[in-house]
Amino acid sequence: MSYLSSLAPVLGLLPAVALVLVLTRYRRTVVRVTALHTELTTLRQALLRDPLTGLANRPGLTQAWTRLAPTRPHVAVIDLDGFKPVNDTHGHAAGDIVLTTIAARLHTISDTAARLGGDEFAVLLDGPDPAATAHQLARVIAAPIPLSTGITVTVTASIGLVPSADDLSAALADADAAMYRAKTTRTAVAMFDPHRDDHTTPTPDTRPAVRVRDLTPITVTPAPCTAHL
């Protein structure tokens, strides 16, 4: 009896010890599940983002379109004029600076900007005057862009604009057609017109072999001299 009596305090602690072990395991499980959930969320967000610019990619744009569909936003397709000479003259690193700078500028105008690929972007405009906003986009894009080499380059934009359609693919095709009219007429912004614009998705055979943007000269401004005499 004396032996059992000496074990009584220990036996009395067993439920508490078991409870501590269970709670510890539970906390570890919660931490692990939370970490996995965070990683999954990060992965999902990465799948909707362009890795260079941080803007939405095509799936991300589709998601934004679905969310904003009730507001019937206008769709703008933006193509940069003069971008190719930046890559050819200053290298791809300079081109990346231009793309990331333009992306940041687009984000100041719209929360739903996307990079479609290369130097082509798209923006959803749900404000009261989408045409005025498109012209604002053209102005902010045309501002000089400083490169890490100390020189400054300038690119401009051709923008096609179309009212909301029933699906995003059709809207992008119409906006793309309007964008090419803006490019060939050098009007910066063109609203889609079914009587003047090919409303089907253009194919390589229907577009000029040499695009207008490749012929646009690049403006280069040397950095001011800072050497001490």
Order of helices and strands: HHEHHEEHEEEHEHE
- Tell me roughly what share of residues is in helical segments: 40-55%
Q: Whole-number radius of gyration?
A: 28 Å
**Shape category:** elongated
Terminal CA distance reads 101 Å
What is the overall pLDDT average?
80
Number of helices: 7
How is the biggest beta sheet arranged? 5 strands, mixed
Query: Reading side by side through the largest sheet, how are the strands ordered?
Result: 2-3-1-6-7
Extended strand count: 8
What oligomerization state is this entry in?
Answer: single chain
Uncertain regions spanning at least 5 consecutive residues: 201-229
| Strand-pairing-aware structural class | alpha+beta
**Percentage of β-strand residues:** 15-25%
Structural features, described:
A hairpin with a 2-residue loop joins strand 2 (113-117) and strand 3 (120-125). The strands form two sheets. The chain has a five-stranded mixed β-sheet, sandwiched between helices. The chain has helices spanning 2-47, 58-68, 83-90, 92-109, 130-141, 168-185, 212-215; strands spanning 74-81, 113-117, 120-125, 145-146, 152-154, 156-162, 189-191, 219-221. The longest helix has 46 residues, at 2-47. It is of the alpha+beta class. The protein has seven helices and eight strands.
